[in-house]
Write a structure and sequence with these properties.
Layout (H helix, E strand, L loop, with lengths): L32 E3 L9 E4 L1 E7 L10 E7 L4 E6 L13 E5 L4 E5 L8 E7 L4 E6 L4 E6 L12 E6 L8 E7 L4 E6 L4 E6 L16 E6 L8 E7 L4 E6 L4 E5 L5 E6 L8 E8 L7 E7 L14 E6 L11 E3 L4 E4 L4 E4 L1 E3 L9 E8 L4 E3 L6 E6 L3 E10 L4 E11 L5 E6 L6 E4 L11 E5 L7 E6 L9 E8 L11 E7 L19 E8 L20 H8 L10 E8 L1 E5 L8 E7 L12 E5 L2 E5 L12 E5 L5 E3 L4 E3 L4 E10 L5 E10 L7 E12 L3 E3 L9 E8 L6 E5 L5 E8 L2 E9 L8 E6 L3 E11 L1 E10 L4 E5 L2 E4 L5 E10 L5 E2 L5 E7 L5 E8 L7 E4 L2 E8 L1 E10 L2
Parallel strand pairs: 1-15, 2-19, 24-31
Antiparallel strand pairs: 3-22, 4-5, 5-6, 6-7, 8-9, 9-10, 10-11, 12-13, 13-14, 14-15, 16-17, 17-18, 18-19, 20-21, 21-22, 23-26, 25-29, 27-30, 28-29, 30-31, 32-41, 33-35, 34-40, 35-39, 36-41, 37-38, 37-39, 42-43, 43-46, 44-45, 44-47, 47-48, 49-56, 50-55, 51-54, 51-56, 52-55, 53-54, 57-66, 58-65, ...
């Protein structure tokens, strides 16, 4: 992986070193999981959207001059729009939230300035009717529950929030809720990153540890050509996400794992600054999904009197979602010694097609000697190199049909030699210019070192994930810049380190650099003349900063993987490329470890039953002797020690467990694995549900992430055509058909399976030979087995629809009930009293499908069960299914 491929978390402020953005959103780890990819996957389709209509939000009363976020409220069939800049202009009338019809007719307003002046992004959770707002100044995400007045942005809202900065986000341009898996996606505009935030065991969005138990997974989407991402929206008809980029005039379609599906050209809108995107039914055809995009137009920072906001409706025909190649990440390049095993780890992300499993193979691409892999077919392996030099190794991930890969460059030196390491600035907020007044500037393509003309300033540089162990001896250290212009004036730069164990990201605070403690060691750099642009030679290399780096890595609290910070001030000026420019600053160090000591190798296995897991780290090793310490992070804010600890989780789910081993010389090594745990309850429990309704050739959704190994999954689908051929379910294997009923012109089908540990989060789909209106729903239950199944259909139209009876033979059993009808008038299902509604889907247009899934929510008596009546608002003929869920074990 090249340095230009290395990305991590981000931050932003409504612009890019005055490129002026505003935009619009949002795990249980001690440190976030960062997904970094270097090898592109199979090419996505390029399609073009056509313009349906343009609405001038500038003509709203009161106006929205800078609409920055938009989401679809499916319960009200309205659009919610946020404006992050309107309070900065003279036409502000205490309104920055706008609710409109899909046609753009203003219906209601609200205001958020009591807690956020920058509601850059907005999302909506249809399950609980909560609204999410992202603030790109505070780096926070707010969750609003409308109060008794049923509105948003009013005084009776119930508000909670979590910090995006805690997982590395600082420019939270947009936020979107993802219904298929109950997750929130936060878009970071500054660094083209997306954070997938999953609620922890408490089920709440309350931030990552230590304030909460959320789980954050970070993805860099810049590798796909995304340049200035401003908005993210959910596509209900496809269970995908759209990211809009005004710079490339493109909306990028991604799946949940942020694998690129399609690129949509939006140039027909003539947008100036597309800032938010959502998907909703078309205004001229409710059976079609259209894109709704808000455009800020000219920025108010440059034109304070502007009022030119717009809303576009655009139509696009997207191809069916096929199999996508796995995406592989092997992390940053590494150094090692000849004959010393180097731990390698590959992370593979896939869409679950054609099967849920993937394989990994390690290969040698180039190098002067031989390479021996310890486990060449495993995601984690060791590699031993026979001679010094530069090697390239590759991890190839395959889903049996397509493959993806990522390369790792390994610098191998003679035994005992200094290990070289080049670490780039990885985020926009990791190189900043602190000026005498105002905010610290982090946006733009250049760094003025140390001053900008006559403006005195202090430069802050931060190099995260520095893979230097505590106590290492630094033999080389400097920062390599690339020139962004010619400068020959006398310049003297004082370089200090930030005297902290792990330097936090810089912010826009006026004292974000100078308020931090400085090292005693410092270096004076008198750069030679820079004679042009794009130069990266010795003239652009700082003086020796070994003493500065040594003071930091010798701190008792320094650990491998921490962040090292530098402070630069002085006289004169040199213009260098910044993180946002063509070449980011790079910290070069070389280091040795105490003589005769090499870092240990961490390894562990796990065995889980119910919610309890036992771990075994005895496979860890150290060349010089026994492992001195084992430190465990169980992924739920709990920790442990020892070789073979056990841990019981508070809730079912998937957790990332980390083992850090320490040898007798103080060197450490860390490895992570995921474990999936299920409920230990002896009774049946509801473990999640999801649904889809629409007119499509391939309905799909992701199985809820709460699903655990051993759960019983029941999948229902009702079609408005009996002539459509049905293929599937696919994407997740192991389904058994349990019903296939034709009643009139509708067809109802059902399948069941026992969940595997990898099923949660995987996409399941059906495929039709033509467009078909369909309702597809899934429920999951722990501690259950499938019992008796029965079905019946109404003989005549009625508003009262009765399920068939079934025999319950085992105490502790639950009853699962299903109703579905084909109608042009049904707009509501009402479940029978005493049942628990799990999912309701109501289609649209003529021949719509409306379906209800409910269960008993508790054991039912043995004997005869069923005969439950659900009602529709209009008379219709329906098909009903009753299923007994018997307790397992």
């Amino acid at each position: 992986m090249t340095m230009s491929d290395i990305r991590t978390q981000h931050v932003h402020h409504g612009g890019r070193r005055r490129r002026l953005l505003s935009g619009a959103v949002a795990v249980l780890l001690a440190a976030p999981v960062v997904m970094v990819w270097s090898a592109p996957q199979a090419a996505a389709a390029n399609v073009t959207a056509s313009l349906v209509r343009t609405v001038l939000t500038s003509n709203f009363n009161p106006p929205s001059p800078d609409p920055s976020g938009i989401t679809y409220n499916s319960d009200r069939d309205t659009l919610l729009i946020s404006d992050a800049e309107v309070d900065e202009v003279s036409i502000f009338h205490n309104v920055n939230l706008y609710e409109t019809s899909r046609a753009g007719v203003l219906q209601d307003t609200g205001v958020t300035t009591s807690y956020t002046h920058e509601p850059a992004g907005i999302g909506y959770n249809p399950a609980n009717k909560h609204v999410f707002l992202s603030d790109d100044d505070q780096a926070r995400v707010y969750e609003l529950a409308g109060g008794p007045d049923g509105r948003y942005g009013t005084s009776d809202d119930v508000r909670t929030s979590f910090s995006a900065a805690a997982f590395g986000g600082g420019d939270s341009e947009d936020v979107e809720y993802f219904p298929p898996t109950n997750e929130v996606f936060v878009l970071e505009g500054a660094d083209t990153d997306v954070h997938r935030v999953s609620p922890g065991p408490d089920g709440l969005f309350n931030g990552v540890a230590p304030t909460g138990d959320d789980i954050d997974t970070e993805f860099d989407i810049g590798r796909y050509g995304v340049d200035d991402p401003e908005g993210i929206g959910f596509y209900p008809g496809r269970n995908t996400l759209l990211v809009v980029d005004s710079a490339t005039e493109t909306a990028y379609e991604f799946n949940r794992n942020m694998q690129l599906v399609n690129k949509i050209n939006i140039a027909a809108s003539n947008q100036v600054f597309a800032a938010g995107i959502t998907v909703a039914p078309a205004t001229n055809d409710p059976n079609r999904w259209d894109l709704y995009i808000v455009d800020r137009g000219v920025d108010n920072d440059t034109t304070p009197s502007e009022n030119d906001g717009k809303l576009y409706e655009m139509s696009v025909a997207l191809p069916p979602i096929g199999n996508l190649a796995p995406v592989v990440s092997v992390g940053p390049d590494q150094p090692t010694h000849v004959g010393e095993p180097l731990t390698l780890q590959a992370v593979v992300r896939d869409d679950g097609l054609p099967t849920a499993s993937t394989t990994v193979s390690w290969q040698v691409v180039s190098g002067p000697g031989s390479v021996t892999f310890g486990s060449p077919q495993s995601t984690q392996t060791s590699a031993t190199f026979s001679s010094a030099g530069t090697y390239v190794v590759r991890a190839v991930g395959s889903d049996s049909a397509l493959s993806g890969s990522d390369d790792l460059v390994v610098s191998v030196v003679a035994a005992g030699g200094a290990l070289p390491l080049d670490t780039p600035v990885q985020r926009a907020f990791d190189d900043v210019e602190q000026r005498p007044t105002g905010y610290a500037d982090w946006v733009g393509t250049t760094l003025n070192i140390p001053n900008a003309g006559t403006t005195t300033q202090t430069i802050g540089l931060r190099f995260d994930n520095l893979e230097v162990p505590q106590g290492a001896t630094i033999t080389e250290a400097w920062v390599q810049f690339t020139s962004a212009g010619a400068n020959s004036g006398t310049t003297a730069v004082q370089i200090y380190g930030v005297a902290e164990n792990d330097t936090a990201a810089f912010t826009t605070s006026p004292t974000t650099v100078t308020s931090r403690p400085r090292t005693s060691a410092r270096t004076t750099w008198n750069p030679a003349a820079w004679t042009g642009t794009g130069q990266a030679g010795t003239a652009q290399r700082t003086a020796d900063i070994r003493a500065v780096a040594q003071e930091i890595v010798s701190r008792p609290g320094w650990r491998r993987g921490n962040a090292l910070g530098l402070s630069l001030s002085g006289t004169g000026e040199r213009r260098a490329s910044s993180h946002d420019g063509p070449a980011t600053p790079v910290l070069h160090v070389a280091y040795t470890v105490p003589s005769g000591n090499t870092a240990p190798v961490a390894a562990f296995t796990s065995t889980c039953t119910g919610l309890s897991c036992s771990f075994n780290g005895s496979g860890s090793s150290d060349a010089e002797g026994p492992i001195a310490g084992y430190a465990w992070d169980f992924g739920d804010s709990a920790s442990g020690s020892g070789v073979q600890p056990s841990h019981t989780y508070g809730a079912a789910g998937t957790y990332t467990v980390a083992l850090t081993v320490t040898d007798g010389g103080g060197l450490t090594n860390r490895v992570t694995h995921q474990v999936t745990v299920g409920s230990t309850s002896t009774g049946i429990g509801f473990h999640g549900g999801i649904g889809y309704v629409g007119n499509t050739t391939s309905p799909a959704f992701a199985i809820p992430s709460t699903v655990a190994a051993g759960d019983v999954l029941v999948l229902f689908a009702t079609l408005n055509l009996t002539t459509s051929s049905v293929t599937g379910p696919s994407g997740v294997t192991g389904w058994t058909p349990i019903e296939n009923v034709v009643s009139g012109s509708q067809r109802t089908m059902a399948w069941s399976k026992v969940a595997a540990s990898t099923d949660g989060g995987q996409v399941v789909r059906l495929t039709f030979n033509g467009y078909t209106k369909v309702a597809m729903q899934l429920t999951a239950y722990s501690g259950a087995s499938l019992g008796a199944v029965s079905q019946r259909s109404d003989a005549t139209t009625t508003t009262a629809h009765v399920t068939p009876t079934v025999t319950v033979g085992s105490a502790g059993s639950w009853l699962l009930s299903y109703w579905a009808d084909k109608s042009s008038t049904t707009t509501n299902w009402t479940a029978p009293a005493g049942s628990v509604t799990r999912d309701v889907r109501i289609g649209s247009g003529s021949g719509l499908i409306a379906a209800l899934v409910a269960d008993s929510g508790a054991p039912v008596p043995t004997g005869s069960a069923g005969g439950l009546t659900a009602t529709t608002n209009a008379a219709s003929r329906a098909t009903m299914v009753s299923i007994v869920l018997t307790p397992s074990g």
